[in-house]
From TrEMBL:
GO CC aspect terms: plasma membrane
InterPro entries: FN3_dom, FN3_sf, Hematopoietin_rcpt_Gp130_CS, Ig-like_dom, Ig-like_dom_sf, Ig-like_fold, IgC2-like_lig-bd, Type1_Cytokine_Rcpt_Type2
UniProt organism field: Cinclus mexicanus
Region of interest: Disordered: 745-765
Top-rank taxon, per record: Eukaryota
Name the record gives this protein: CSF3R factor
Entries under Pfam families matching the protein: fn3, Lep_receptor_Ig
Family, as annotated: Belongs to the type I cytokine receptor family. Type 2 subfamily.
Keywords, alphabetical: Disulfide bond, Glycoprotein, Immunoglobulin domain, Membrane, Receptor, Repeat, Signal, Transmembrane, Transmembrane helix
Domain Fibronectin type-III: 358-451, 452-547, 548-644
Amino acid sequence: MARRDAGTPFLPQLSLLLLLHLGGECAPSWTLGCASVTVRSHIVPLGSDVTASCTIQRELCRGLEQEKVRIRWMLDNKLVAGSQHQGPGSTEVSNLTLPRFNHTHARLWCCVEWNGTKQRLSMAEIRAGYPPAKPLNLSCALNLSDYGLTCQWEQGTDSHLPTSVTLKCTGKPHPLPEGPQAHCSVCCRSRGQAVTGCTPQGGHSHCTVPRRLLQLYRQMEIWVSATNALGTAESEHLCIDPMDVAKLDPPTLQSIQSIPFQTDCIALAWDAAWGTEHMELQCELRYRAPEDPAWALVTGITGQAGTAQRCGFLFGMQYQFQMRCRRNSASALAYWSEWSPGRNYTTHEKAPTGKLDAWWGAQLAGTGGQLEVQLRWKAPRQREANGRVLGYRVTLSPRRRGRDPPTVCNTTHTQCNFSVPAGTRRVYLSAYNSAGESAPTEVNLLERKGQPLAGLRAVPGGEHSLWVHWEAPLAPVIAYVLEWQRVTTEPDHCSKCWQMERDGAATTALIQDGIEPFQQYNISLYPLYEGTVGVPVHTTAYSQQKAPSHAPKLHLKRISKSEAELCWDPLPVEMQNGFITSYTIFWANTITNGASATVNPSLSSFVIRGLKPSTLYKVHIMASTAAGSTNGTILTLVTRVLDDTEIQFLFLTLGLVFVLLMVLFICFQKNQRMKEQLWPSVPDPANSSLGKWVPAAVPQEPLQILATRELGTATISTVTVLEREPGKQPGKEHPALPTALPALPRPYLRQEGPGEPVQYARVGG
């Protein structure tokens, strides 16, 4: 009952599963009889529309006879939508249109839905691309070793489709008129039977036409044809004689020698390469000296072999020679051979010619009446040296026949120091090589007291050059001499750093020798007048500037509670890298914002004012040029609480207070002694022993006692002088004296030194 409700017998269901399984394995549509996919074209232009149709025949697909068929489309693994309708008989048809198809290669599947999954039944493979591109730059060359014609070209853009490329050629059926353009046009009009010359292998863009297909010494038409399913493209047609494009081997240079009577000319013998004996050749010769940037070319050399002559060579100069040849034909497509291996040759020398540029400095020696001369000169140019200069000679007079003048200097350098008599006004300088000696150059030792120039300035001319400008003087000038020296900490003299400008009307000159960027140069200019040398003028310049390498190091010179004086050492000129335009001082504490001040580069100290007492500050300096700035290291300083004058006053005050306290302390310690010194103690006679002692020899006299309130004149009645008894100490009571006496007048006692008499006086009213 369950099987009957299922609606599909077991065996037909199993066969459908196997069938769908085979379709799911991407079997070709022609192997599956129940479904088929048809497309308008399996190869289409890229970007065009693609239409397809899938037809399923129910009676051929066992198990789908009673099922509802739902057709689905998949492009590779992507689901695409199509339309479905019932076809004739028991067929189901689905149509699909893919607009702007942009896949170069894809598979289009027709599927059905069964048991919730999509099963593939049939497939169509589609390719898309472009028609083949036109091959470009076709060229051919004939190899004389096997006489095969090798052609190469540029393939052009990829068509994304399988493309067959062949090289085709055809022979000329009748004679052609002269000229390459006529050759091509006539070939194209009278083309014979085209044959495939060769086919490139492995996707390359070159191949070789064998000798059996070539017609030598006759015009042939050659082109490249590229074909795919969307069309065919051909390159430009070449109409050539294969011999015109023969690639020859280079010729051989046999010998090179100077012509004996014309030493600036050479004769060169050469031979053609093997295999070209039957050809009329056209050759070219080129040569150059080692320092020449370009080659000199000699054309118009024809023949099989022979000798080529050329003049205008410099004396004593080494040259390199090379030669190449091609078939002497009217075709512009003929190939030159490679250049032959270089061959070197040095021309003959002769005596140097021309004048030497010389410059001098002279000063009188301390003793002996001699003139010390420092003579410098420029080596002659190669055109004037006529070979390798062996040395230079300085004499006091010109050379005459049969007599050699006295020589004061003979050197291989371009400078010489020597002494001459004080009255010498000129010397003679000459150069010599293996072929002879040049005519002497007269050097006048003129005094430097002429009119100086004005307006001298120098500006950069490049990284390794300087332009010097000046104003022309009123007096006529014969020449100018420029000197320049690199400014260094250690003195250094460059003997070659000078040049002479022969044009007296010039107001500019370019210095190129020995100029380096970021280095300072002192430049001096001397005008040469008739009979004298002008006083030099000077300037300084840089060819290129940058920020200084370092900034100066700050030093604290003085500090107070509100000011700090800083100083620094000037930067060495090697570290400046340009003209120092300014120094900038920056300072800041941890509370307020920083401040700065710009200092003139000629100064080497600065005073920071307005600082707060007992505050920490950080200070640094920045050195600047026109091209940049560089910061120095940080200097940390702390301002004082008090200034020096305040500290001095405080110490003075404390010292005075200390002295006063010490005085008071001493006074309190020595109070009794001070009191005795200032206020001496006067003894009270009433309490003395003498006041209580009355001698026996003195008669008793009545004493009249004045009332204490009575005032009157006191009268002295008796004065007695007593001698002190030996052994008797004053002040001790006499035993005979009464213990009590009436109130007596207090005596006055004056005690002198020991052993002196003691005076007693009793004064009565």
